[in-house]
């Protein structure tokens, strides 16, 4: 369903751009959850099927809009299918793998320009609503909506990426992925499903 | 020993600037540990006592050179005096207190411009050599130089600051400091003195 870049035909780029612009406006105004492909298509004046044809899922459309050089579907489905007691290690492994991949430098560039620009709403939306919302729903209980747990996970993940990719804190920056997963996985697992006291 | 800003006299700003410039060059070339006040004074053509008079300790000189709107001595001495089993909570409490203080927005601005500029060597040096090196020496053993432990601490601390101050991840961003310390302190304590396996 997802078109390759070479599948773009001249004359259609107008529709593509209109979809991206409508997506940008909708996501910014209403957030990820409250935005539908149908609504974006309506704003852009195209059929929803064309949005799916060009961009795939809503998450993939978000990634394209945010100019992320990655497809979030594969790591996300791995995370969502992981046994709940391996969720911490799995999140870390999948995210580190993406950042250590050839797409890594592009992600660093996007992150750096977001941080420099000061508008973090897209980064926040991507981390919390696109990536971690379905993880949250897996661990939420009637007593605990797990928002604080997910926020702690986000903080440790962002810290690993900043230490490893932006600041270059050794030996974290050059540590093989599996060693990092072994050292930090238990932290994420505690944040997700372990005892966390808030004072 | 530390002069207030109003204590600067006209005519002396030349020496002050020369000291800052010499410090910047020395720290960048040799790192924090291998740079002495004496060497900086020599480069600037002033007496070492004048460097101490203007800036205080080497750490305070570093903070002034990096244009950090804080004095690292108070939080650092609190951290260094904390019982080793309370080190994690103490580091978190002291650092969060500084970032939540009136100096916080200035620190965010410095961090943002460092991240945007892409030269993270000063940030790295401040975190690892100025703040955490003496913590490392407290926990190092003949078998473990504790560099990886300190790197993990740095990653979680940076992640908390990015989540709380740059990205605005809720509920981390508006959580009272003591709740954050209760939730994240055990992570830092494990990284410092607990079991950490690297695969």
UniProtKB/TrEMBL annotation, chains A, B:
Q: Which residues form the HTH tetR-type domain?
A: 13-73
Query: InterPro entries in the record, alphabetically?
Result: Homeodomain-like_sf, HTH-type_TetR-like_transc_reg, HTH_TetR, Tet_transcr_reg_TetR-rel_C_sf, TetR_C_16
The answer to keyword Ligase applying to this record is no
The record's keywords, sorted A to Z, are:
DNA-binding
Residue ranges flagged as DNA-binding region: 36-55
Single GO MF descriptor: DNA-binding transcription factor activity
What is the name attached to this protein's record?
A: TetR family transcriptional regulator
Species of provenance: Nocardia bovistercoris
